[in-house]
From TrEMBL:
<keyword id="KW-0288">FMN</keyword>
<feature type="domain" description="FMN hydroxy acid dehydrogenase">
    <location>
        <begin position="1"/>
        <end position="357"/>
    </location>
</feature>
<protein>
    <recommendedName>
        <fullName>L-lactate oxidase</fullName>
    </recommendedName>
</protein>
<dbReference type="InterPro" id="IPR012133">
    <property type="entry name" value="Alpha-hydoxy_acid_DH_FMN"/>
</dbReference>
<dbReference type="InterPro" id="IPR013785">
    <property type="entry name" value="Aldolase_TIM"/>
</dbReference>
<keyword id="KW-0560">Oxidoreductase</keyword>
<comment type="subunit">
    <text>Homotetramer.</text>
</comment>
<dbReference type="InterPro" id="IPR008259">
    <property type="entry name" value="FMN_hydac_DH_AS"/>
</dbReference>
<comment type="similarity">
    <text>Belongs to the FMN-dependent alpha-hydroxy acid dehydrogenase family.</text>
</comment>
<dbReference type="InterPro" id="IPR037396">
    <property type="entry name" value="FMN_HAD"/>
</dbReference>
<dbReference type="Pfam" id="PF01070">
    <property type="entry name" value="FMN_dh"/>
</dbReference>
<keyword id="KW-0285">Flavoprotein</keyword>
<dbReference type="InterPro" id="IPR000262">
    <property type="entry name" value="FMN-dep_DH"/>
</dbReference>
Length: 359
């Protein structure tokens, strides 16, 4: 456990690569096919520019915000990511502790290395969401929804963009198999929840998901259901029609449909279609305070990222995770000051320009 001295989030990747075993690192870092969408995700933030505002008569930007009435100290949150035991022996428990220390929102994955209850306990009362991968086995779905509710989870994120795994070449090259159990799955698995046992679980993951499934989950739980993996206005409207209380714009960090657009490029049209009826969470490719700002100014209410947190976890445990959020919050504060935006709401109404710098 250690605080990290961070220059910027992209630089964490090379450091983490030195300490995470090859198979695990490839699984975390990789995208699908030739990683085109993965690369475009971060580049796309160049497609919009922040308008500087110097004569703004302001100081001390305020990062606090809220979602579903839950107060947060920062609009930057942890995306749900699987198997954090690959990065650190304490896995998601350490991530939850780190997020709690900075007042950021933690999202747990179905495929976590630590159980819903243990991760919630490590957060020590800090707000957490739980991400559900729908199974064909509805007992499994209902059981996890019940456990989440019991553990004090505040909302469900239903991920719908992984009806089949993306074609991830790093995992093929490394012959990657999860070396650690997935705590939420062990009781449903014939095996021990790792290695081959996990194949059974994947085999029972739903291959087709419709609005009716979203509705069935929203009807079952009294927690808000946020649908994750939305990349078009049409899907956003389908999700809302089916009872979603939130839309999560994401292309899974370029790990699923390669050849799809950068997530940032589709955010404005989705935000227009949603038209403030439900909150929007955004992720994929976010690495800078300026990226967070641009996403908020394009219609997002919260902005998540995945890989940089996992690298912080690998390098410094809970303290490393906290360092990652302190760093991006610092970059965001500087951006807010220079753009003359005192609050997160001010960012949401800040103008962006769309000059092309291709020549
Ligand atoms: C993910 N992601 C993901 N999403 C989800 O809904 N459930 C999951 O279990 C996982 N697992 C997972 C593992 C790893 C190692 C990564 C990198 C990602 C996707 C995640 O929620 C998020 O959409 C992306 O991580 C965002 O992209 P960046 O910030 O990593 O570029």
């Amino acid at each position: 456990e250690q605080d990290l001295d961070i220059l910027n989030l992209p630089s964490l990747e090379a450091e983490a690569k030195k300490i995470i075993p090859t198979g695990g690192f490839g699984y975390i870092e990789g995208g699908s096919e030739d990683n085109w969408t993965l690369a475009e995700n971060t580049k796309a933030f160049e497609h919009a520019q922040i308008v500087p505002k110097a004569l703004s008569d302001m100081e001390d930007p305020d990062l606090s915000t809220s979602i579903f009435g839950i107060d947060l100290k920062t609009p930057v949150m942890m995306a749900p990511t699987a198997a954090q035991g690959l990065a650190h022996s304490r896995g998601e428990a350490a991530t939850a502790e780190g997020l709690a220390a900075v007042g950021g929102l933690m999202a747990q994955s179905t495929y976590s290395s630590t159980s819903i209850a243990d991760t919630a306990a490590a957060g020590n009362g800090a707000p957490q969401f739980f991400q559900l991968y729908m199974s064909k086995d509805w007992d499994f779905n209902y059981s996890l929804l019940d456990e989440a509710k019991k553990a004090g989870i505040k909302a469900i994120i239903l991920t719908v963009d992984a009806t089949v795994d993306g074609y991830r070449e790093a995992d093929i090259i490394n012959n990657f198999q999860f070396p650690i159990p997935m705590a939420n799955l062990t009781k449903f698995s014939e095996g021990d929840g790792k290695g081959k046992g996990i194949a059974e679980i994947y085999a029972s993951a739903a291959q087709k998901i419709s609005g009716a499934d979203v509705k069935r989950i929203a009807d079952y739980t009294d927690l808000p259901v946020i649908v994750k993996g939305i990349e078009s206005p049409e899907d956003a409207l389908r999700a809302i029609d089916a009872g979603a209380s939130g839309v999560y714009v994401s292309n899974h960090g370029g790990r699923q449909l390669n050849g799809g657009p950068a997530s940032f490029d589709v955010l404005p049209s989705i935000a227009r279609a949603v038209n403030h009826r439900v909150p929007i969470i955004f992720d994929s490719g976010v690495r800078r305070g300026s990226h967070v700002f641009k996403a908020l100014a394009s219609g997002a209410d919260l902005v998540a990222f995945g890989r940089p947190t996992i690298y912080g976890l690998a390098l410094g445990g809970a303290k490393g995770v906290a360092s990652v959020y302190k760093h991006i919050n610092h970059e965001l504060e500087i951006t807010m000051q220079l753009a003359g935006t005192k609050t997160v709401d001010d960012i949401k109404s800040a103008p962006l320009t769309h000059f092309s710098y291709n020549d």
